[in-house]
Amino acid sequence: MQATQMKSLALIAGLAFGSSAFAAVSADQAKRLGNELTPVGAEKAGNAAGTIPAWTGGITTPPQGYKVGEHHRDPFAADRSSLSITPQNYKQHADKLTEGQKAMFAKYPTFKMNVYPTRRSASFPKRTYEYTIKNATTAKLEANGDGVTDAAEGLPFPIPQNGYEAIWNHKLKYKGVAAARWANQAAPTASGQYNLVRIREELLGLYYKPGNTIKDTNNILVYFYQVVESPARLAGQVLLVHESLNQIKQPRQAWIYNPGQRRVRRAPNVAYDNPGTASDGLRTNDMTDMFNGAMDRFDWELVGKKEMYVPYNSYKAHSDQTKVEDLLKPGHINPDLLRYELHRVWVVEAKLKKGKRHINSRRTFYLDEDSWQILVIDHYDGQGRMWRYSEAPSINFYEVPVFWSTMENHHDLQSGRYIATGLDNQEPMYDFSFQTNPENFSPQALRKRGVR
Question: How many CB atoms within 10 Å of residue 18?
């Protein structure tokens, strides 16, 4: 799809950011949800070429034989790749590739994208759909886009009017009320050498609790607890974060526990472009979950919608039959263990505001229309040059159900290195039945939990 087509889509959808951008959509617009649009605002119909099918509900039941607690079985294991995009032929498919993907092909002779039939597998609980439709006529932005009001449980802006609303859909996307997971990571050298960092995490999102509204969250979007289990030089380090909804009203609060000092202290810089935990500088804090945190340093433009090749239904990379060493190769993840599909994505441009500081001058986000998951990001450095390419191979965690990343890969195209997170192939699976409460995420509780 050419730029002119994207522009016309934006105008049709009424996406210009102006004085009315903070208002909810009309009841007549909201009636489209569940009709020509899915309950979360995607186009229900397939494309004219027939290469993207109609959405028929996504995955509504787990594959036969699946038991909760297993790594998720591939519902599409019988699919075969219909196209392999390589450094030799990628220019023939350039209209459906991001600038970061093109840069990956240009840099790495071993990089390829195996394209499979498009499976619109994303689905959410019925309650999420119901509240998303309600939110469409009530939810509003506040604080120049840095906060949301009058929303509950579901996606706040299924018919987005600007880039802020699209990113808020990703940030408030249903992920279960609470979860415990392994989020192991590795940052291979250019030659492929790496040390695996084993990280255990717990999350609690009161926004998703049935019956809650934004007012019931005390302005906390997510409570987050992270402990490094190995290697020994990092073991015992703990990070506690209270991720706020409106970070201008109340900035993100964070604490760290250092096992050597045996004390808890405030961590003032767990935000924006400060380096992520044990990331070798390859991932910033606001790249967690592809993007999180305050939005105030960038201007966010909703460019429109486009058909793109994106990572999707990545059950092979997720499988416990796949070992970490099978995944991690020099320069990039083993392409034979990844799956790409043609999907419609929302394109959001984030450009650094004048007078603001960030290591990125610009970032382009590609959000899945069926789930609002950010699937791909192109990052540009301070001089406007392509710098990093990020992608989030994702699956439907169908016992919930929720469509979410199973790993995230951030490539530094200048150094030839990358970091892969979410490497839980040989670890226990996500536990969405995890029971916890806000008291377990207090600094006082951190002192008790951090003692080794």
Answer: 9
Q: How large is the greatest C-alpha to C-alpha distance in the chain, in angstroms? A: 62
Q: How far apart are CA 164 and CA 350, in angstroms?
A: 9
Across the strands, what pairs with 83? 115
Q: In what order do the strands lie in the sheet with 263-266?
A: 178-182, 198-204, 220-230, 238-244, 253-258, 263-266
Give the Cα separation of 92 and 97 in Å (integer).
Answer: 10
Distance CA 282, CA 138 (A): 39
Is the distance from CB of 426 to CB of 323 less than 8 angstroms? yes
- The residue behind tokens 């309950």 is 39
109/111 Cα distance (integer angstroms): 6
Helix ranges (H only) for 179-278 are none
pLDDT, tens digit, 9 for 90 and up, residues 16-69: 444 344 678 999 999 999 999 999 999 999 999 999 999 999 999 999 999 999
Q: Which residue has the tokens 């290697």?
A: 231
Helices (H), 108-251: 126-135, 163-171
| pTM over 0.85, yes/no | yes
| Distance (Å, whole) CA 100 – CA 390 | 8
pLDDT digits (tens, 9 = 90+) for 273-324: 988 888 899 999 899 999 998 899 999 999 999 999 999 999 999 999 999 9
Residue type, 258: N
| Closest to 388 (Cα-Cα) out of 397, 396, 403, 378 | 378
> In angstroms, rounded to a whole number, what is the distance separating the alpha carbons of residues 68 and 65?
10
- At 128, the amino acid letter reads T
Alpha carbon distance 165, 151 (integer Å):
12
- Residue 13 CA to residue 373 CA, distance in Å, equals 20
Long-range contacts of 154-158 (CB under 8 A, 24+ apart): 154/127, 154/128, 154/129, 154/130, 155/40, 155/41, 155/128, 155/372, 157/41, 158/33, 158/37, 158/39, 158/40, 158/41, 158/132, 158/133
- Rounded distance between C-alpha atoms, residue 83 and residue 91, angstroms: 14
